[in-house]
Amino acid sequence: MASSRPKVYSALITPAIGFLCLATLVPIAAVVALSFGDFNIAFPEKTRFIGLYNYARFLSDGRFINAALVTFILVVVPVVLQLLCGLALAIALKEKLVGTGWMRAAFLLPSIIPPAVGGIVWKLFLIPGVGGLSYLASLFGHNFEADLLGSK
User: Fold this and answer.
1) What phi and psi values does residue 49 have, to the nearest 5 degrees?
2) Contacts of 80 (CB under 8 A, 6+ apart)
3) Kindly report the CA angle at 99 between 96 and 103, in degrees rounded to 5?
4) Residues 80, 46 share a domain
5) Is the separation of the CB atoms in 106 and 92 below 8 Å?
6) Global pTM?
7) Fewer CB under 10 Å: which end of the chain, C or N?
8) Do residues 50 and 36 lie in contact, with contact meaning Cβ atoms separated by under 8 Å?
9) How far apart are CA 120 and CA 110, in angstroms?
10) What's the CA gap between 19 and 25, in Å, rounded?
């Protein structure tokens, strides 16, 4: 009985995975096919095959080379620097030095504060009679006094 469960799970998830693959691969294949043609969206029936001409044209264009260089500088360089800084901080925080406990807590704060603030905002929004939900209901002529977070 226990060995049949993975088969059932696989059978149930296979159609979803197949659909996701199709939804991803079909548009990619269509774009690649269009890239080998002289396509004009106003006159799609006049599309003709031109091979690698589009690729040769943009690879030899100075604007593309400049854009690729700027993209490299603005994406790859910061990622490498952040990786190196993060690795250095992780190694430093691994050591048992004075203040590492406080530093670890300080690094966790950006992960902890947004959900806590979100919870407080939702609690304020759902206060019966005076919260934002009550106000929105009053705009439509309803008197919303339900305590959604309470046990009343």
Assistant:
1) -75, 130
2) none
3) 100
4) no
5) no
6) 0.45
7) N
8) yes
9) 16
10) 10
53 and 73 housed in the same domain: no
H/E stretch holding 37 reads: strand 37-38
**Alpha carbons 32 and 97: distance in angstroms, whole number:** 55
User: Can you read off the two tokens belonging to residue 114?
Assistant: 């947004």
> Distance between alpha carbon 21 and the CA centroid of its chain, in Å?
18
On whether both 44 and 82 belong to a single domain, the answer is no
Are 108 and 80 contained in the same domain?
Answer: no
Which residue segment(s) compose the domain that 141 sits in? 98-152
Position 12, amino acid:
L
Q: Buried b / exposed e across 47-58, counting CB within 10 Å, b at 16+?
A: eeeeeeeeeeee
pLDDT value of residue 7: 86
Same domain, 37 and 68: no
Q: Burial level of 78, CB count in 10 A (0-12/13-18/19+)?
A: exposed
- pLDDT tens digit sequence for 68-110: 999 999 999 999 999 999 999 889 888 888 888 888 888 888 8
Measured between alpha carbons, how far is 60 from 86 in angstroms, rounded to an integer?
Answer: 38
